[in-house]
Design goal:
- InterPro entries: NAD(P)-bd_dom_sf (IPR036291).
- This is NAD(P)-binding domain-containing protein.
- The chain is an alpha/beta fold and 104 residues long.
- The protein is built from 3 helices and 5 strands.
- The protein has a 3-stranded mixed beta sheet with strand order 1-5-3.
Length: 104
């Protein structure tokens, strides 16, 4: 952070679905924000092979990042979603932020 300006970079995978979890394209069909998929929040390049995410899930992650500014500062975060196994799997963004190292 050579400039001294605090930052957090959120890099979502391919954005699918309209606002509020509506399905507007084939990749979003049957998916609802925060349900039926496991949202993966990880360090750059560490997102378990998933490729896309609902726009509403990205908004939820950004809101969490704003609430956890101290944990998120100086980090690049990737977020994607993949099918959940069985029951709804909620991602604790605060825990994920704590496990991501600051950028060099």
């Amino acid at each position: 952070m050579a400039s001294g300006i605090p930052y957090t970079i959120v890099r979502p995978g391919g954005l699918v679905g309209g606002g509020f979890g509506t399905s507007t394209d084939s990749r979003a069909k049957g998916r609802e924000a925060g349900k039926e998929v496991k949202v993966i929040v990880g360090a750059e390049g560490d997102v378990d092979g998933a490729r896309d995410i609902l726009r509403a899930d990205v908004a939820r992650i950004i809101a969490s990042v704003l609430e956890e500014r101290e944990l998120a500062e100086g980090k690049t975060i990737e977020c994607v979603a993949k099918p959940a196994t069985g029951t709804k799997e909620e991602t604790n963004v605060s825990d994920a932020l704590g496990n991501i190292s600051k950028d060099n």
